[in-house]
Amino acid sequence: MTVILRHRTGPLATLFINQEPVPAIIGAGGIRGDKSEGDHATPLGFLPFRHVFYRADRVSRPATALRVEALAPNDGWCDDPAHRDYNRQITLPHPARHETLWREDNCYDLCVVLGWNDDPVIPHRGSAIFLHLPPASGATEGCIALTEPLLRRLIASPAQGIEVRAD
User: Fold this and answer.
1) Of 19, 28, 73, 134, which one has the greatest count of Cβ atoms within 10 A?
2) Which residues form the active site (predicted)?
3) CA triple 105-44-110, angle to 5 deg
């Protein structure tokens, strides 16, 4: 299965699943090959699917061959480039700067961790790049967002990741 993301304008993008176009939302900073922490850009390149998080109190467990983990209120992700846990899932409370995965909004009710800056982790290269549900703001902080039906369809498929292109 081929999954390609192409940038349209601003935070709007088109995800092609076997050449079928579906709407997607990306980072407010567009697509960048030189992704860095805090630039609000979606990284250029192949982003493999790592595993899935979901809020069991809000949505049903997704059907997927990927590893699936129900989120808990103490789940977080370290986005502090100076800390040894940078770009890794953490347990809260945590001493470094971090993002809480158990959110008030619905963005991470269904969320796929994408392989970006994780093998090896390089400080300041960007963290917490996910495939998640659309934010109310209309742009992500560098992630890719799809509606829940499209996200479920994608992770139920044999796709291994998303090829992000700037063309």
Assistant:
1) 134
2) 132, 143
3) 25
> How many helices and strands (H and E) does the chain possess?
1, 14
Q: In this structure, are residues 86 and 78 in contact, taking their beta carbons and an 8 Å threshold?
A: yes
Quick: pLDDT tens for 59-95.
999 999 999 999 999 999 999 999 999 999 999 999 9
At residue 148, φ and ψ (nearest 5 deg) are: -60, -45
Task: Give the burial string for 64-96 (b: 16+ CB within 10 Å, else e).
Answer: beeeebebeeebbbbbbbebebbbbbbeeebee
Question: How many Å is the maximal CA-CA distance in the chain?
Answer: 45
118: which residues sit within 8 A by CB, 6+ positions away?
50, 87
Cα–Cα distance measured from residue 151 to residue 136, given in angstroms and rounded to the nearest whole number? 17
Q: Which helix (H) or strand (E) holds 148?
A: helix 148-156
Residue 94 a catalytic site member: no
Q: How confident is the model at residue 9 (pLDDT cuts 50, 70, 90)?
A: confident
Distance CA 141, CA 102 (A): 17
pLDDT category at 2 given cuts 50, 70, 90 is confident
Q: Give the pTM.
A: 0.97
Cβ pair 109, 133 in contact under 8 A: yes
